[in-house]
Amino acid sequence: MIKRPGQQQLLLPVSPLFMWASLVVALLINMIPIGRAAWMPDLLALAIVFWGVHQPMRVGIGAAFVFGLCMDVHQASMLGQHALSYTTLGFFAITIHRRLLWYPVASQALQVLPLFALSQLIEVITRMIGGGVFPGWSVLISPAVEAALWPLATVLLLAPQLRTPDPDENRPL
Fold it and tell me: Which chain regions cross the lipid bilayer (predicted)?
């Protein structure tokens, strides 16, 4: 099937079980005790933005807040640090979801980069207000890595929703 420029493939409805499982898996991956280097991507933030863009009625600010509290408790950080960061991410993801989906995936990655940078900035400022030290400028690498992972996340998380590419007389769509 040949698609015109700007034409998208139709997707099946998302399974709520798959959507919430992907968020929980991202949370568990973030909780793996491999050390938190400043350049490591926050996969939970990536999943929250992805589902906030693709399913804004199901994954919203409340879910982002709960997952943020889970990360705060796990990392023993100031309570609300990740919650504020993820809530802001969820809000802006829902705000831009209609506009963002009009663009190709590479352009989407560039447009979510400021969201990830804002999230990182909120975490750093909150940590510093609580008496922490500035982690250095290497903290700016993490949002770039998260934005670079956006196309991979799109492929992986939309894969179960893809329809068959060759319609036949029994499946006109």
Answer: 12-32, 44-71, 108-125, 137-159
Burial class (CB in 10 A: 0-12, 13-18, 19+), 149: middle
Mind listing the pLDDT tens digit for each residue in 43-76?
999 999 999 999 999 988 999 999 999 999 998 8
Residue 153 burial class via C-beta count within 10 angstroms: exposed 0-12, middle 13-18, buried 19 and up: buried
Give me the residue spans of the domains in the chain: 17-29+38-159
And the tokens for 144?
């770039």
Close Cβ partners of 90 (under 8 Å, ≥ 6 residues apart): 48, 49, 52, 59, 60, 61, 63, 64, 65
DSSP state, residue 159:
G
Q: Write down the residue that tokens 């991979």 correspond to.
A: 152
**Residue type present at position 137:** W
From residue 71, alpha-carbon distances to 24, 67, 84 in Å are 11, 6, 11
Q: Which pTM does this prediction carry? A: 0.85
CB 76 within 8 A of CB 103: no
